[in-house]
Amino acid sequence: MTDSFSNLSLAPTLARAVAEMGYESMTPIQAQAIPVVLTGQDVMGAAQTGTGKTAAFSLPLLQRLLKHENPSTSPARHPVRALVLLPTRELADQVAQQIKLYAKYTQLRSAVVFGGMDMKPQTLELKKGVEVLVATPGRLLDHIEAKNAVLNQVEYVVLDEADRMLDIGFLPDLQRILSFLPKQRTTLLFSATFSPEIKRLAGSYLQNPVTIEVARPNETASTVEQRFYAAQDDDKRRVIRKVLTDRGIKQAFIFVNSKLGCGRLARSLEREGLKTAALHGDKSQDERLKALEAFKQGEVDLLVCTDVAARGLDIKDVPAVFNFDVPFNAEDYVHRIGRTGRAGASGLAVTLVSPSDTRLVGDIEKLIKKKLEVESLQLDDHPRPGVERSERERSDERPRGRVYEGRRREDFDPRDASELRERRGGFRPAPVNRDPFFAKPYEAPSSDAAPSWESAAPKTPRSSISANIKPKRKVAALFKTAE
Ligand code: AMP
């Protein structure tokens, strides 16, 4: 029997939307989860982003909500019936867009609310009534407090990327939100990994859940070639260039552990003539979207990102991922390399390991249950003229703060504080920008131009730093404590 959507007896309105998406057969998580969710049971699902899990929960939820479908314009006839919670605004936006596509031939309404955007348009939409509400926890609580969202008729809750929600520190917010919901409901929890904390969360809020695992927990995609190269901090950028050139790779994500490190590395690469953009939690939503769009258009070859900022990027098959810093949290390794080699496409994940990273690599080995070999890569003897750096530039990259496990920690903020910050100090309105980017998988930019590292890279003057990269932050910012 094939895993065809036609085996599911979906309502014609949903089947038509699925057919329009061009899906030929169900992905493994869909084949396993959809029949279970259709029966209304709680689910604990281990699946990474990129496995098709959004459709795995939203199609059966929509199917079950069809009994509430009605053409009335009265908001009272459209109470929130399903709540989908996600850790980041990008992810919320992306999931909401998918749900809109699946529900487009039904009369069910959906909306998304997340921080970093003006509350007013979100409020207007909520007041009109929506059956499916997609939200990040912080902003949802703001709307609950403002009485814009009433959740006493919720029948389904999805805790998506639950491990990341806990990492960000959303547990208290989640607990509060769940306290507003009817006890009688279906709860679906999805997480890339089943850590003890996730199991505790599930134990508290799920009832006899059916466990679904498409890959063993913490297993990394088998289509990803994982390489670990020994590199001193000063050599890491040369290693990246060498791998990019040797492998003929056109675009890549580079992960770093801190927001400051992110900006700093992006500036250094930019100075070397590489088309680079930075993506981290201090960037406004608008800046993030611009950076992503520039990457998609091929105006940018390298996207330097922190974990939280990259969390929501649904771009399949980015050719390569570099871990410029070994992640502090081994689970982030799994998430990072999930950006490449997705949905069956092969990818390359290169991790640059400095001598102080031994313990962190050991943590990854334990998590993915695989012995990892750290190789050495032969670099050219002399750095290219364009990449020689002045003493000033080098000092730019030296550790400045407290040292944590031998690494910089001064600006490491594991929580994407933007949303929490907004709640404490008032939000920064950003222009509303519907983002078609997230709905699309990664596509190589159409331009035939050679990537920036292939052309000789004369050192570019400071004034030519791209608009995507913010000027260096003032020293005072280095002493800012994490929020
Ligand atoms: P997700 O894991 O939900 O973020 O989905 C990742 C990507 O896979 C999205 O771009 C979906 O549109 C796509 N997708 C979901 N289900 C299928 C399917 N059955 N066949 C092909 N692509 C799919």
How are the secondary structure elements laid out?
Layout: H1 12-21, H2 28-38, E1 43-46, H3 53-65, E2 82-85, H4 89-102, E3 110-113, H5 119-128, E4 132-135, H6 137-145, E5 156-159, H7 162-168, H8 171-179, E6 186-191, H9 196-205, E7 210-213, E8 224-230, H10 236-247, E9 252-255, H11 259-271, E10 276-279, H12 285-297, E11 302-305, H13 307-310, E12 320-323, H14 330-337, E13 347-353, H15 358-368, E14 374-376, H16 391-396, E15 403-404, E16 407-408, H17 417-425, H18 475-478
Parallel strand pairs: 1-6, 1-7, 2-4, 2-5, 3-4, 5-6, 8-13, 8-14, 9-11, 9-12, 10-11, 12-13
Antiparallel strand pairs: 15-16
Helix pairs in contact: 2-3, 3-4, 6-8, 14-15
Bound molecules: adenosine monophosphate.
Can you offer a commentary on this structure?
With 483 residues, the chain is α/β, with parallel strands linked by helices. The chain folds into 2 domains: 5-213, Rossmann fold (3-Layer(aba) Sandwich), CATH 3.40.50.300; 224-397, Rossmann fold (3-Layer(aba) Sandwich), CATH 3.40.50. 36% of the residues lie in helices and 14% in strands. The chain is built from 18 helices and 16 strands. The protein has helices spanning 12-21, 28-38, 53-65, 89-102, 119-128, 137-145, 162-168, 171-179, 196-205, 236-247, 259-271, 285-297, 307-310, 330-337, 358-368, 391-396, 417-425, 475-478; strands at residues 43-46, 82-85, 110-113, 132-135, 156-159, 186-191, 210-213, 224-230, 252-255, 276-279, 302-305, 320-323, 347-353, 374-376, 403-404, 407-408. Strands 3-4-2-5-6-1-7 form a 7-stranded parallel beta sheet, sandwiched between helices. The chain has a 7-stranded parallel beta sheet with strand order 10-11-9-12-13-8-14, sandwiched between helices. Strands 15-16 form a two-stranded antiparallel sheet. Strand 15 and strand 16 form a beta hairpin. 47% of the residues are buried. The model is unreliable at 384-441 and 456-483 (pLDDT under 50). Bound molecules: adenosine monophosphate. Adenosine monophosphate (AMP) is lined by residues 23, 26-27, 30, 49-55, 314, 343, 441.
